[in-house]
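Bumping with the actual sequence this time:
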Amino acid sequence: MKNEKIKFYYGLVLIIVGIGVFFRIPRVMDQVAEIEFFRHKLVAVRFCFYMLGILLVTSGIIRVKKK
């Protein structure tokens, strides 16, 4: 019982962090654009950030549904 609650709340945390990544991307991309190395790779960096958010939300949903 206790282990199921921990998995449920861990899933909720993953979902919240994933949603937070989506809100944070536009602000972070401005900072990343200032770095010389990443200036020409912004599409790839943005893709990776969005993929990270999608994976976090998806894994959180899977954890919450399994509980």
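The tokens above came from a reply further down the thread. The CA atoms of residues 28 and 34 lie 10 Å apart.
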